[in-house]
Specification:
The chain is an alpha+beta fold and about 240 residues long. Helices cover about 25% and strands about 35% of the residues. The strands form 3 sheets. Strands 1, 2, 3, 4, 7, 10, 11, 12, 13, 14 and 15 form an 11-stranded mixed sheet that branches. It has a two-stranded antiparallel sheet with strand order 5-6. The longest helix has 12 residues, at about 20-30.
Length: about 240
């Protein structure tokens, strides 16, 4: 049986808005001098919430953990569409928002529940002929993207005050919430884009059990070891 160190496993980080997921990995690698560090599911720079960071031999479980279902919460602004489908992009259209109640908005959101063939946004890390789409998008190049099969378990708005709707969505891995916001705006005829996004859960793991990145980087090596979810526990999850 393999011997595992106290740092072979994962820690749960509540990613702040700003850094990329790779920035979080780099910061932890540098702070604690761990050679193998990875993450399980990219969050856009402006997105916050649960980022599972795998350490040492725990990196062998990254693909498995990445495949878990996800839960997100966030805000969609109606009446404005952007090229990136979120607030980082350039405005591509602005239209009046039709009057609608929270119940009417939820009726529209419910039409997205189930299996969907989703077209990824141009501003994404998906590669076309070896080149990330976002690099092509920066040059003003738009290419055809292959739709991907995803599943939406639940998509519901908890509040709506024109033009902003607060939502919660449970979905399979690989779902672009930005695309979901864009597609809902297209369906409503007014356009929409994602303004905030927070991942609250991934598989059995919840952001309530995570430490902020600042808190993680203030830990001593011994304190970090106590926060690590051991490899064998992760493998059995």
């Amino acid at each position: 049986m393999q011997d595992f160190s106290a740092l072979d496993g994962a820690i749960l980080v509540d990613k702040p808005s700003g850094p990329t997921s790779h920035d979080v990995v780099d910061a932890i690698r540098r702070k604690f001098g761990i050679k193998k560090v990875g993450h399980c599911g990219t969050l856009d720079p402006n997105a916050t919430g649960l980022l599972i960071i795998v350490l040492g031999r725990g990196t062998k479980l990254s693909e498995r953990l990445m495949g878990d279902d996800k839960v997100y919460e966030g805000t969609i602004k109606f009446g404005e569409a952007t090229d990136s489908y979120d607030s980082d992009g350039e405005l591509t259209g602005s239209l009046p928002v039709m009057p609608m109640t929270l119940d009417e908005l939820n009726n529209e959101a419910a039409t997205f529940i189930g299996d969907l063939m989703q077209v990824p946004p141009m501003v994404s890390a998906i590669k076309k002929n070896g080149v990330p789409l976002y690099k092509l998008a920066r040059k003003g190049i738009e290419v055809e993207r292959e739709p991907r099969l995803i599943h939406i378990y639940n998509f519901r708005f908890t509040d709506y005050t024109e033009p902003l709707g607060q939502f919660r969505v449970a979905c399979t891995k690989g779902t672009y919430i930005r695309s979901l916001a864009h597609d809902l705006g297209q369906k409503l005829g007014c356009g929409a884009h994602l303004t905030t996004l927070r991942r609250s859960a991934s598989g059995k793991f919840d952001v309530a059990d995570a430490l902020t990145l600042d808190a993680v980087l203030k830990l001593s090596a011994a304190e970090l070891e106590k926060r690590v979810l051991p490899f064998l526990k992760l493998a059995a999850a």
